[in-house]
Amino acid sequence: MTKYHRRDFIKSASAVGAAVELATTIIPGRAFGANNKINVGVIGVGGRGTYVGNTFGEVGKEKDAQVVAVCDVYQKRINMNRDAHATRFNTKVDGYLDYRELIARKDIDAVVVATPDHWHARMAIAAMRAGKDVYCEKPMCHTIEEVKAMIEAVKETKRILQVGSQTTSADQWWQAKRLIAEGAIGKMLMSQGSYHRNSTEGEWNWPIDPNAGPTKTGEDYIDWKMWLGGTSSIPYSPDRFFRFRKYWDYSGGTATDLFFHVAAPLNICWSRPQYPSRVMSGGGNYVFKDEREVPDTFHLIGEYPEEHSIVLSSSMANSQHIPGLIRGHEGTIIMVDHGMFEGRTDHITLKPERRVVGNNAEYKQKFGFDDKLADKSIPVDPKDAMTTHVANFLECMRTRQKPTLDVETAACAQVLITMAVQSYRQGKVLYFDEKNFKVGDTPPRA
Known about the structure:
Number of strands: 16
Strand content: 15-25%
Radius of gyration: 22 Å
Helix content: 25-40%
Shape: globular
CATH architecture of the largest domain: 3-Layer(aba) Sandwich
Low-confidence stretches: 1-20
Number of domains: 2
Order of helices and strands: HEHEHEHEHEHEHEHHHEEEEEEHHEHHEE
């Protein structure tokens, strides 16, 4: 297990300071009428950012929005996206190596942040203070301090922030939320989920361009110093640049890449989004002995003040999932029977606890059970969650309503997974003091 030294905390604090180093003036955003076109800029156009940008282009056809600018520290990615949008959407797109130039444009109304994790908070906050609404890819940020900074920035600037975990826009979570609110499972006890992969790309060994680097010219140029941001100043590393999720400085590994897709929708389901009170985690690099720092197998347990817990498991070396479900004293809701949280499903299942509700006529009548109490399949809309999520963000830009995965809900998921990373690296159980928004080794005083 990688040791977590005091210098890691100092380095993290320095990065947070950069993230919240804000301008003194907050610029108000533009108000939209029904026919005003929304101009979007995308920062970070690697594989994920390219996909998200293309989704904004497609959804924008119906929602009167368009991508007008892209930014990346790798010139080839800028060129590819600029050309692709011109061909696919007949849109003129400008390209930038420096994200600050994109954010400074007065005609840009929304900014997509799809960079490595360590840049999310800094860019999102800068964009909000410049009057832009923000679609920030998951995870929301990289540290607990940044979680708080982003919450405060949304409140201060009154901008719309949608966190890009599109899973939360899938209908099964909202159907489960309705059932839980109606009392279908009684007292909630435990939520469980998993995220497993066993493939070259699944383990983040994405292709490396051997011709690219900071000493190259033309489209092969990478601004390595900019990419590093507030992290350790080290010589250019192709593996770190192209496979950043393997390293602690830029990612939380499985926790921030995959568990966010589980923790965020569960917070949608529950009676309300909740911060954990105690978090512990474990795992290790059991199979992959390459340069990676993050574990290939990882699991966490989170406990909550309202007396329920969450158990999540993952591996990059085994592809078998476990069902995603929420257990209660009176019943269980299975949201994802195949276990793939990002996969589509056309139903969820309510399984009543026969011993508890067998003689409860009111329960059976309310939820449509006969005396046999056979499992009940509830149909859900198998809509495309990604396009729905982007459309929701664009609609909220016009209505100024809270988006599907707002900053407060996303913060609850982020605190859980960030604490899990800290627990693993420090080798200890950690506690969250919600009142003071701090993580400690002992429970906070009442």
